[in-house]
Amino acid sequence: MAFLDLILLAALAAFLGYRLWLILGTHEKDKPIRKRRSTKDDDVVPVRAQSFSAKSTEKESEAQNASKDIDEDRFLQGAGMAFREIVQAYALGETLVLQKLLEGPLLETFEDAIEKRKKAKKTLEVEIARIVTSEILTQREEKGVGYVTVRFVSEQCLVTRNSKGKVLEGDPDRFTEVTDIWTFSRPLDSSNPNWKLVATQIPEA
After folding, report:
1. Domain extents for the chain?
2. What is the CATH number that goes with domain 67-201?
3. Is the pTM above the cut of 0.85?
4. CA 146 – CA 142 distance, rounded (Å)
């Protein structure tokens, strides 16, 4: 009976091994086992190079997915609201509002510009008729922080006046199309879902 049990166990092990081979198959060193299911599998968020280890690879993968898997429509909706609020706060000199929406050197730049405008006794009026388009240009992760760069095209009326209300720059009766490229960021491990503006740039002509 013991001999028969050994035969049955050996047969069962052989069967399980054969089934496992059918599922996993064999593969060459440089070829993935999993087949690509769609072109989305090719999307990669650039990350900073790190020394290879199982632990660091796992953390890098989690951070990469957190940056890549944002709901783009929802993000752009929130970014559009932030865009309007930041532009208006800058025009009105509301630094407390800007401190909640901006971060880093950019916040200091905005605050300095507001202070200089006040000293010169100038006022800035900005009216955004509409955001024509908004699109995500890039997404990346660096040192555990996610960055998303967005291009906004909007119709704005910008007017600068002196202390007496005289127009120094702009036309209060004219709206022009303005292109802005803004970069938002947030720590990927933060429980706070809000993104802050950290950089702006002038689009290339």
Report:
1. 67-201
2. 3.10.450.240
3. no
4. 7
